[in-house]
Design a protein that fits this description.
147 residues; alpha+beta; 60s Ribosomal Protein L30, Chain: A; 23% helix
Length: 147
Amino acid sequence: MDANTSIESITREVHPKPERRHELPYSPAIAVTGPVDILFLSGNTAAPMYHQHPHVREEHLHAPDIETQVRRAMDKIKMVLETEGLTLRNVVRVNKYLTDMRDRDGMSAVLKEYFGDWHPASTTVCVNCLNQPGARVEIEATAVRPR
């Protein structure tokens, strides 16, 4: 980026449902244009991507099992990627936040269903809690697209 290039000229928000943009206090992803395009995806839980703020409890009723929660989070990640013409093969980094590290094996098994033999860089962190009651996992990702 040279001195005349602004950050606004190389970044943009990504919204799979732009008509609902006003409902979120964040972007589902930020795309960065350069020698490679970079897509930074926000963290996803099993809750609906577009929901009320402040949170309405009825929109955040989570399945009790980790596998269902991971699938719901990953389906939203896939939806954002597809909005940009990308697939999970474009993902180069995944950060996973668990409220109970004993859920790691169940989470990993579901991630293998989605990623197959592709293994992006990854970090798993155990946290005290997530931003929604009942959420046991949050997943964020970074994807790239060669120009």
